[in-house]
Amino acid sequence: MSEFIKTLFEEKEKLDEICHIEEQQRKKIQKHLDTLTDDQIGKCHLRIKYY
Questions:
Q1: What's the per-residue H, E or C state across 1-51?
Q2: How far apart are CA 24 and CA 27, in angstroms?
Q3: CA 33 to chain centre
Q4: Within its chain, how far is the Cα of 42 from the centroid?
Q5: Distance from CA of residue 47 to its chain's centroid?
Q6: Could you tell me which of 44, 50, 18 has the C-alpha nearest to residue 32?
């Protein structure tokens, strides 16, 4: 049973690290989005609309 608990704990640590990395990426993307001008946002919207 303790081996099972150890495995679960190791998997939890891996998932925590993945969550941390995802949060960093989200912050980086949000920071980039905050710097876009209205004109740039409009161009992005048009590109997405035509895909």
A1: CHHHHHHHHHHHHHHHHHHHHHHHHHHHHHHHHHCCCHHHHHHHHHHHHCC
A2: 5
A3: 14
A4: 23
A5: 22
A6: 44
Instruction: Please give the structure tokens belonging to residue 22.
Output: 């995802």
Tell me what pLDDT residue 31 has. 92
* Max CA distance (Å), the chain: 59
Rounded Cα distance, 24 and 30, in Å: 10
User: What is the C-alpha to C-alpha distance for residues 13 and 7, in angstroms, rounded to an integer?
Assistant: 10
pTM over 0.70, yes/no: no
